[in-house]
Amino acid sequence: MKQLIKHRVSILYALFFLVWIFQFDWIKENILFFIDDQSRLVQRISLLELAVQHIQIVVLASSISIVIALVLALSVHLSQSKEYRDLILQFSTIGETLPTAAIIALSVPIMGYGNGPLLLALSIYGILPILRNTLEGLSSIPRSINEAALGLGLTAMERLIKIELPLALPNILTGIRIATIINVSAATIGATVGAGGFGVMIVSGIRTYEPLLVIQASVPVILLALWFDRVLRVSAH
Amino acid sequence: MIKLSQIRKLYDTQEALRNVDLQIEDGECVVLIGPSGCGKSSLLKSINRMIDIDAGTITFFNQDIQSLPVEQLRRKIGYCIQGVGLFPHMNVKENIAILLRILKWKEEDIERRVDELLLMSELPLTYKTKKPHELSGGEAQRVGVCRALATDPPVLLMDEPFGALDPMTREKIQIAFRDIAQKLHKTVVFVTHDIEEAILLGDRIALMNEGQIVQLSTPEALIQDQKENFTKNFIGQDYPLMVLKRFSVRDLKLKPISNLNVTHRIDLDTNLKEALALCIKQTEAVIFKDEQNTYSLVYSDIFSFIRGMQDETAH
Question: Are B82 and B161 in contact (CB under 8 A)?
Fold first, then answer.
């Protein structure tokens, strides 16, 4: 019950999301009746199929970002070298400043059409928030706690696993949350190079001047982003 | 036994420690005291290698501390700091047991050891599940001491551990700590800038200034024997009165008397400073009793005790 109360908002978002995916015809007739439906002209794509693709892409890209960012953060932390830290942060900042569209466009000649270029772009994009937040979390541990851990004779590994990572966890989760919600919305532009997800419907909606299709696919993207935000926020506490 | 010889430490070009020699015997409490920046903390931290010295050797039970892996050395030395540094994501029991868990103790042994330590430091066993933020400053430091004692290390290093506590709490925890250290026969090196704390806890006091030990004496000997002006100024004119706190009425070895009305509710564990204060308020003898006997206490009992003590230290 307590769990239920804690997650009530995310449960609400999930319900909205599912109703939208499975009962869109009802929504179309009862809520969006004022929008002219021309979709009989277009090949219908199942919303469920797009949702599954979209979630797969986001989860996969975020996982890759998490692994890379954590490995980098730990190597920086354990090296204790300021130069190395600055170098890594510089690189990941450059990754952040590259427009997603540019990474996608540039990687198509190498990786071809499909999900590949999108996954690459999203993964690069997700590294910085996680890396920066993890480093921030590790370096903001109070001095007295570090001194006590050192004085007790804990090895670097023991300190990392028992003290530093648990204390940095809220920051790490914040980084993951930011990376994930960026990915949820950024994933839609992948459709321009043949990737799956809600972007497919949005792009075809734009191409056929059909607002209903755009709305049909955009709303679940928003709900999905809100849901990820909520769930990761709650688990950070 | 810890032996420090010719210890030197530089911070940039500033000499923090200048060729310091110090030998600490088993079961002894040596208090390092001095003004800020005198090097007392650096000296303490060089023993468990929290800082690395630039010259000199430190031997720990006849073994050079550089020859041991640093983690192994630190596990043999309990370490308490002013900020305590309890791990906020762990409860009291997990904090105390952190090293025991790493050393793979059995769960029932851990449970027993934690209970034993909490009992000894006068904390209720229900505190085991409390988080550090639920503890008062004094309680947190008691837990800190328990954590330092968990693996029963022979040596304790205390870096101004009670400095941030209010006076009432501080005195209670000082006495509790002194009793625990004596009972367990721990070798203690204690850093403070509070002369009363040094008197209460130290078997010997090492007075430091500008990176050197200026004087190394028992608290009693320091009454008469003040080698330098610095010592005189640092310990202050009322130093002899403060030394009274080290002793209790029991140490006077008063003879029981009979047939007198009890005038005061003190006992044999009352310290001599308080006893003297009572004598000052009272025009006649202070009459008090313990479980069996009645005693009478006057000024002169305390004075002659101090005289006798000084004669003892002079020889």
Answer: yes
Token duo for residue A159:
């300190």
- Angle between helix axes A165-186 and A115-139 (nearest 10 degrees) is 150
Q: Are B92 and B84 in contact (CB under 8 A)?
A: no
- What letter would DSSP give residue B293? -
Per-residue pLDDT of chain A (237 residues; tens, 9 = 90+): 777 788 888 888 888 888 888 777 777 777 777 777 666 555 567 888 888 889 999 999 999 999 999 999 999 998 888 888 888 888 878 877 888 778 888 888 888 787 888 888 888 888 889 999 999 999 899 999 999 999 999 999 999 999 999 999 999 999 999 999 999 988 888 878 877 788 888 888 888 888 888 888 888 899 999 999 988 888 777
Q: Between the CA of residue B251 and those of A136, B108, B227, B313, what are the distances in Å?
A: 57, 42, 28, 16
Contact state of B50 with A151 under an 8 Å Cβ cutoff: yes
CATH code (residue A110): 1.10.3720.10
Our count of domains for chain A comes to 1
On whether ipTM exceeds 0.95, the answer is no
* Distance in angstroms (rounded) separating the CA atoms of residues B259 and B261: 7
Nearest to A157 by CA among A80, A70, A78, A75: A78
Identify which of A159, A157, A129 has the alpha carbon closest to the alpha carbon of residue A141.
Answer: A159
Give the predicted TM-score (pTM) of the model.
0.82
- Measured between its terminal Cα atoms, the distance across chain A in Å is 18
Residue A100 and residue B273: Cα distance in Å, rounded? Answer: 77
Q: For residue A211, what are the domain limits?
A: 2-22+47-235
Whether A41 is in a domain gets the answer: no
Instruction: List the one residue out of A160, A169, A69 whose CA is nearest residue A123.
Output: A69
* Domain ranges (residues) in chain B: 2-236, 247-313
> Which CATH number applies to B247-313: 1.10.238, 3.90.1280, 3.30.360, 2.40.50?
3.90.1280
The residues of B whose Cβ lies within 8 A of any Cβ of A are 48, 50, 70-75, 79, 81-89, 98-99, 102, 144, 147-148, 157
Domain for residue A30, yes or no? Answer: no
- Cβ partners under 8 Å of residue B55, min gap 6: B6, B7, B8
Name the residue with tokens 């006590």: A148
Q: Do A167 and B48 touch (CB under 8 A)?
A: no
Chain A: nearest CA to B62, how far in angstroms?
Answer: 20
Does A167 sit within 8 Å of B102, measured CB to CB?
no
Q: Distance, in angstroms, between B178 CA and closest chain A CA?
A: 21
The reply to whether A29 falls in a domain is no
Residue A159 DSSP class? I
Per CATH, the number for B2-236 is 3.40.50.300
Whether chain B has a CB inside 8 Å of the CB on A86: the answer is no
Q: Are the C-beta atoms of residues A207 and A151 closer than 8 Å to each other? A: no
Q: Which of A145, A152, A159, A172 is most worth mutating to test chain B (most B CB atoms within 10 A of its CB)?
A: A152
